[in-house]
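Hey, I'm writing a tutorial for new members on how sequence and structure tokens pair up, and I'd like a real worked example in the thread rather than a made-up one. If someone can provide the structure for the chain below, I'll link this post from the tutorial.
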Amino acid sequence: MTQPPAGGTAGVVAYVGLGGNLGSEDELRARLQAAVAALDALPGTRVDAVSSLYWSAPVEASGPTFLNAVARLRTQATPWQTLAALQAIEAGHGRERSYRNAPRTLDLDLLLHGQSELEEPALSLPHPRMAQRAFVLLPLAELDPGLLIPGQGAVASLLPAVAGQAIRAGEAPGQWWPAGEKSATRG
């Protein structure tokens, strides 16, 4: 059984996209592992599942292939607090924002935060391009095939639209995230 975050309240379910394309395969995997550990250490937050790793070609960008995954969190943090934490974790791993869609050491995107719907310059929820990205939808479908994205529909119904994108599955959760199990759920 999944334990609630510290403080005794289950909080909201949030999904975070993880990725990177600068460094060796081992460096990328280590950064994703460190990012998941950092998410799990945030006050009032617990990572309760991670997806498999996925290799994908950059979308609307150039550069090396990305290594991606999605983490499911239970958190008491607000969307803004979660975004600030994600940006701090990225900065701690050398993330530079030199130009839009630049190659990156670590990219953390807040995809969903409960049923929040926001449209502000610094934060849009659901993530505005998540329904157009196989590297987001495939890991989400793995974690929660019945997930409904506000304003978009069910994850499973969105998959056919991204079927032509270059992506391949990598390691299963229990192989890359030490706390993972075959089911991708940590308990």
